[in-house]
Design a protein that fits this description.
The chain is mainly α. It has helices at residues 2-40, 66-85, 90-101.
Length: 103
């Protein structure tokens, strides 16, 4: 009986050691693969945060008289003519157009 217990104990020690070694090899290999993936992957692009959104004005169809809309249309036509003549840049035109439309 003592020989049987000694054999079982030896088998348990060997099996435990083999499991521990196998686990360690697996962890090391996973670490190497992770490093290779990080080295091979392009760096993540860093983007600047988007500018804050402009508040959208409330639509005031009932309160805006028709004459006010005609004035806005005339101003927009004048702006378009100034842009076409080269007096205003596209950026200046867009800024002024926004002021007219959202005022």
């Amino acid at each position: 009986m003592p020989g049987l217990i000694r054999g079982v104990a030896r088998t348990a020690v060997i099996a435990g050691t083999a499991t521990a070694v196998s686990n360690r090899v697996s962890r090391r290999q996973q670490g190497r693969w992770a490093q290779q993936e990080q080295a091979a992957a392009p760096p993540a692009p860093s983007y600047a945060p988007p500018p804050p959104a402009r508040p959208v004005p409330a639509y005031r169809a009932e309160s805006a008289p028709a004459a006010g809309m005609d004035d806005k249309l005339k101003q927009l036509k004048q702006l378009g003519e100034l842009r076409d003549a080269g007096v205003l840049t596209d950026a200046e035109f867009e800024a002024q157009k926004g002021k007219i439309l959202y005022a």
